[in-house]
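Allow me, if you will, to draw on your knowledge of protein folds for a short while. I have a record of one protein: its chain in single-letter code and its fold written as discrete structure tokens. Kindly check, if you would, that the fold set down in the tokens agrees with what the sequence suggests. Thank you for your consideration; the sequence and its tokens are set out here:
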Amino acid sequence: MQPSRNSLSEYNYNLPPERIAQHPLAQRDASKLLIYENGEIKESQFLNVTNFLSADSFLVFNNTKVIHARMLFDIGKNKPIEIFCLEPVAPFSQQELSMNVQQTCIWRCFVGNAKSWKENILLEKSLQIENENVIVKAKKTEKEKDSFLIEFNWSGNFSFGKILEAIGLLPLPPYIEHKADNADEERYQTIYSEKNGAVAAPTAGLHFTKSIFDNLEKKKIEVGYVTLHVGAGTFLPMKSDDVLQHTMHKENILIEQKLIEQLKLKNEIVAVGTTTLRTLESLYWIGVRLIKKESNPFFVPQFYALENQHLQISKADSMQAILNYLHENNLSKIEAATQIMCLPSYEFKIVKRLITNFHQPKSTLLLLIAAFVGDDWKKIYDYALQNNFSFLSYGDSSLLTLKNKI
């Protein structure tokens, strides 16, 4: 299972703070685009991305939508208590179902200024929704290692999604230093976002515009969608130099039957973003688990892929196993969860090309890039630094081709 190199210090580079984009460009597709293939690098603008895609490409996007996950409760002191909703726990663990519940639910949350929240204090906040007075209450029910289980209760016949929309704030990443404003409300969402549940945007998709989708259609390049609700764990730093000691966060995924049918037949699959890539690669391993008749096949543990890479199971066979399961159980989609960690030495099973932004040093996302392009990740990042590319969520983009692509 050992990755080729498992020391985190090998996946480091110097990222000057001024290279971290703090605001989006005026035009989404005006961002720069780095193209990497067969060890060669060139650059263009993202509005030209279709020119670098072959007609047989199949682009897959993550249609998750960022929710207003941050809530501030004033307790009469200088610093409010911040509750950051991470994932639903009850009555449903699926984001979309939980967003539609009324009156009460429990979420796993980060809590800022938690020391000021005494055990017997019930946090309350008053607001108006559709001209109706609503009281929202928050209660700590359980302390976990890095988070709390928080029970929310509210008056009125409103969904929890509606409550968050009214009371919550857009959860910009910690390296973006301004408070979310009206521009962020629009630009920290993809134009195709649809399924509520993410607490961070799938940022590779932020560059896409209607014009680019029109160009894809003109070139007869097909597109498809998956849903992975991005968790705050994507920003958690890796604390150990041994990458195998890091615990990946679990994220919920949803994939429609039609996409699985398409994936079975397509070869030139392009993942738009690391979240899409992780979803597609997880899908392959779900098929493997079904073939092996393993328990809980719709959960992919962190190191499952690395531990089972010796298996010679084709993408087509894996997809067919999932399709068989859907048919036998009269289902039209699969709901699953993944902790998959793509480390150097991981052999990609589905994705051949990747559209992605530039990631933080010593992060799980940079490890994924190193797995995808090999040691050339250093050459790619050096080029981006030397040629005035901007980095991270609001930064520029790249189109990367899998090393040794066949």
Remarks:
- The chain has a mean pLDDT of 93.
- The chain has two domains: 8-65+185-401, 69-169.
- The CA atoms of residues 239 and 245 lie 8 Å apart.
- The first strand starts at residue 32 and ends at 37.
